[in-house]
Amino acid sequence: MKTCLIVDDSKMIRRVAARILRELKFEPCEAGDGREAMEMCKVAMPDAILLDWNMPVMDGLSFLKALRATKGGAKPIVVFCTAERDVIKIAEALDAGADEYIMKPFDSDILGAKFSEVGLLGQDPCSYNDQAMAQI
Predict the structure, then answer these.
(1) Does the bond joining 56 to the residue before it have cis omega, within 30 degrees of 0?
(2) CATH number at residue 52
(3) What's the pLDDT at 89?
(4) Segment-wise mean pLDDT, segments of 10 residues, the chain, 136 residues
(5) Residues paired with residue 4 on neighbouring β-strands, in sequence order
(6) Domain span at residue 86?
(7) CB under 8 Å to 89, separation ≥6 — which residues?
(8) What Cα–Cα distance (Å) separates residue 91 from each residue in 15, 37, 41, 85?
(9) I need a labelling partner for 64 at 20 to 30 A (CA). Which of 56, 57, 76, 107 fits?
């Protein structure tokens, strides 16, 4: 099972994201800021990281730059998950090594589609949604 580290200072966002990730067949783990996430990555590098921008201690952009400079830090797919809508800031995150971004608020369809887009799910988002609907 693939792992996804959720890095967000909001416990509620982490809880919602973890539920969605379990539905997508990921094993989620959580960090409340970039420094905590960096320590977790040094122990075990996840397959994917869902990363908030604005956090105390170490923000998402600082974490991303530190991650990409770390041994094995090029491996995880990083999806910024932010309320930041400034195109310049989004470009800065992509230039720093983010693979994609989603805007808050998000739901399972948005997260599933984005994870499919970056190759984490191995199927297209329409296929995922059809399977999800078939289970209802």
Answers:
(1) no
(2) 3.40.50.2300
(3) 86
(4) 96 96 97 97 97 94 97 96 84 94 92 93 50 36
(5) 28, 48
(6) 2-134
(7) 53
(8) 28, 22, 24, 11
(9) 107
Q: Say which residue the tokens 């379990």 belong to.
A: 22
Q: Is 57 left (phi over 0), alpha (psi -120 to 50) or beta?
A: left
Count of domains for the chain: 1
CA distances from 43 to 59, 107, 119, 125 (A): 20, 29, 24, 32
Q: Which of 15, 9, 16, 71 is nearest to 35 (CA)?
A: 9
The C-alpha atoms of residue 63 and residue 123 are separated, in whole angstroms, by 29
Instruction: Compute the residue count for the chain.
Output: 136
Question: What pTM does this model have?
Answer: 0.87
The one-letter amino acid code at 115 reads F
At residue 131, the pLDDT reads: 40
Is residue 53 classed as helix, strand or coil in its secondary structure?
coil
